[in-house]
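#struct-pred

JT: dropping the chains for the assembly here, can someone run the whole complex?
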Amino acid sequence: MRLSQILISTLRDDPADAEIPSHKLLARAGFVVKIAAGVYTFAPLMWRVVKKFAQIVREELDREGANEVMLPIIQPKELWVSSGRWDRYVTDGIMFTLKDRKGSEMCLGPTHEEVMTAYVNAQVNSYKQLPVNFYQIQDKFRDEIRPRFGLMRGREFIMMDAYSFDADQQGLDEAYAKMRRAYCRIFDRCGVDYTVVQADSGAIGGAGSEEFMVIADSGEDSILFCRDSGYAANVEKAQSRLPAAPAGGEAKPLEKHATPDVKTVAQLEAFFPGWVAGRMAKTVLYHVTWKSKEKVTAVMMRGDLEINEVKLVNALDALTVRLATEDEIKKATGAEVGFAGPVGLPDDVPLLADESLHGVTNLLTGCNQTGYHCLNVNLGRDCRMPSFKELRLARAGEGCPVSGKPLEQARGIEVGHIFKLGTKYSKAMAATFMDQGGKPTPFVMGCYGIGVSRTPAAAIEQHFDDKGMVWPVAIAPFECVVAMLDPKRDEQQALAQQLYAQLQKASVDVCLDDRAMSPGAKFKDLELIGVPVQVFVGRKAGEGQVEFLVRKGMQKSECQAGEVAAKVLAALGR
RNA sequence: CGGGCCGUAGCGCAGUCUGGUAGCGCGACUGGUUUGGGACCAGUAGGUCGGAGGUUCGAAUCCUCUCGGCCCGACCA
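RK: done, full complex below.
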C-alpha cells in the first residue's frame, strides 16, 4: 500500500471537543471524523485497525466453536415486546425507534438477545442440536444520554456479541468458561493491560457476570482489587471487610435531643462530642421505581459509610432508584431534610438497613422531627426492625473479602463483558427445545460482548506519548512503514521500493510512504500515526544506509539496507 | 433530564461587556526558492458570524425563541 494513495489528513491542533488522549489523537491523526454527536466516520487507517482487531476476535471465538452470523439491525417492536424490554428501553430513551411506511414501529438494535433467541428458537428443536454458540460483529445503536470521549461512548458503535445456548446449567458453565478463555487470549493478543473483574449484571440481567477492564486513568468505571488474593471487582459489585465500629454496649434508654440546624453526620459529630460517625445511622430516602409501582423508601447506613445504589436496586428488585426530592422527603417523614430516621417513621415507608448495622446497639439517628435527633436508638425496640441487606459501597483501603489485605482502586475501561443469562430471555420469549424426556425446556443462555470500536481506543489510552499514538503491533494500521524522505530522488525511490518489496515478501504488513512532503513533516506525521516500526530512506540511500525507528521508546539507529528485513522482523517479535 | 458553558473561514481562536468597513494563526490553492524535524517568499480563494424573529438609522455584538455541540451527574461494549 502506498500512502500517497490513502487519504491521510492530520491536524496540527487537537480538536476542541476532545478530552482524553485517544480521542484527541485519533481525531488529530484523521483516524475518525465526527458526523454527529457520538457518530463517526472511520477513515482508512482506522478501519484497518478495527478489521485487525475484529479478525483476532473471530479467530479466538472460532477456535472455541462459536459461529459468526449476520443479524438484522432493524428489528420489529413485537420482538422487544415479547421479551418485555421494549417499554424499558423506550422509557430510558436509549433506543432509536422509527416507523416504516405502514406505520409499524421498528428499532435500530441496541443489542441482539431478542433476535438471536428468536433465531435459535426457530432452528433448534432438540437437545441433540445443543450446545450452539453464535456471534456477530456489527454496528449497534444506543441513543446515549451523553455520548463522549470519541469512540469510547458513541451512539453508533461496533460490537461483537455472542450468545450461547445450552441444555442445562452445567452446559452454560462450560460455554462461559470457553468464552472467558477466548476473551483472555483476545486481549492478550492485542497488547492491552487488562483485568477481569466481578461485575453487576445490570439491565441485561442474569446470574454471574465478569467484565474485562483496560486499566486507564480515563476509564469510566472504578474497580477495587487485591494484589495478594487476585480479587478484583467493579465498585458496583465489590465487597470488603470493615473494621468494627465502636461497640454500643448494653441497651440504654432512648433519649431525644433538640439539634436545631444539625443535619449532617459531620455536624452531629461536632454537636455530640464522643459520638463518632461509626455509632450513627444515617437514613437516606430514595424514590424507587418498580415495573408497576413507585414508592419512597428509607435506607439506613452506618454514618461513616456510603450507600451503593446498584446494590440497592438489586436488593429491592427495582428498575431504578434516585434520591428523593426535598418535597418527597418532607411528605414521607414529616420533617425537613436532615432529620430522617427509623424512629417514628410512618408505617407506609419501607425501611431497609445495611448489614453493618445488624446487632448494633445504642445508635444516634434522626427521628423524623425537624430539629431533633435520638440517642441510644435500638432497632426493633424503638422502631420497626428494618430488613437488613448488603447495601454498602466498598472503598479502597478496606479489607479484601478474600485475604483481608487493603483493597486498591483503579480506573478501567470496560472492553468486554460476559454474562450467565440463564433462562431469563428464553422463558420470557418461550424459546424451548425438547429435552431427553420429550419435555419442552427453555434454553440456558449466556451472552458475551466486546466493544470492537472501543478496544482500539482503549489501547491508545495505554499506548501513547507526547508525539502521538504507539500502536500495539497486532492492531496497528500497518506493522511497518518504509518512508522515502525525498521521493524525487531516484536512489531513494529505488531503495525504498526494494525494501518495501522485500518486507512484503517476508509477510510483513508494510506500507510505502511515497508522499511528497518535507522530511520534518513526514517524521511528525508518522510519529503521530504511530506505526510500530519505521524505516527512513534518506540522503544516505546512495550508500545503502537507512534509518531504523522503533516507535515505542523512539529508539532510532542507522543500518545497512541489507539488515533491514531482519531488524524489522526482530522488532515485530518474529 | 437536571446543572455549567460554547456556536465567527476546513481546523484552532480573537472580536460580543461598551452596536458603526469581519480579523489572526494553521491549513488549502497558484508561482518561485527549498528538501533531515510540521520550510521560505510573493500572491489567491474561502464567512447568510448556527437559524428565526425583534429593538435600532445601523446588530457577530442588545432582547426573545429555536437548533446544534461540549463539560459535570444517573445508563452501558
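JT: nice. The mean pLDDT of chain A is 93. The first strand of chain A starts at residue 32 and ends at 36.
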